[in-house]
Amino acid sequence: MTTATPGSTSRVVFLALHAAIAAASVGLMVGVFPGWWGTSPDATRLAAVGAMIAAYVVRQAITLFVMLQRDVPWGEVWGVSTWIVAIDLTMAAGAASTDAAWGMWGWVGVALYVVGSWLNTGSEWGRKRFKQDPAHKGKLYTGGMFAWSQHINYFGDSLAFTGLAIATAAWWSAWIPLVMTAMFIWMHIPRMDAYLAGRYGEDFTRYQARTKSFVPFVW
Q1: Tell me, what's the pLDDT at 35?
Q2: How far apart are CA 30 and CA 188, in angstroms?
Q3: Regions of the chain where pLDDT drops below 50
Q4: Cα–Cα 20 to 30 A to 208, which of 88, 106, 140, 177?
Q5: Total-model pTM
Q6: Using CA atoms, how far apart are residues 60 and 18, in angstroms rounded to an integer?
């Protein structure tokens, strides 16, 4: 007899919502729904931004069904889905509204998105593998990419969405990575640090003393 994944129904709904939001955003961006937004004449920009929006759905699928072991409450589904609407619509609208030609900065944005996604998902995969070993039960994971930064997964997301904003060539899309980074620094990191300190005690204190909090090797 198999045990259902905690919050399995909410995970499916969560991913379906994200996929629908992404599809609608890309549709608006490329002009599937005439009369909504202007469409950038640069096909490379539209393709690149569309691919990054789609990759975000894939990353979430990996997180929900491979990485995450805890329950996914319905409040989280609706709250994060609202944030995803803001991200996808902002980036799609930014890419569609610019007349700027695709060039070096577009590729810089793509590179940052790829590196940031790798830092986020790759670091989580390393931690999952560590936790799967029964010998590591109750131990704090400080290896892999987490040796570079205590919250390398958060930094990866900030970097990825900075890259996506750059790729749109719309300066106002920068509000997404700015708000995201502020939330990491002033909300998620303090909350996570308090949890880890309570769970791992001196092990976490020593880890904090030798490892930067957010930006690898810097801060």
Answers
A1: 54
A2: 35
A3: 1-4
A4: 177
A5: 0.91
A6: 8
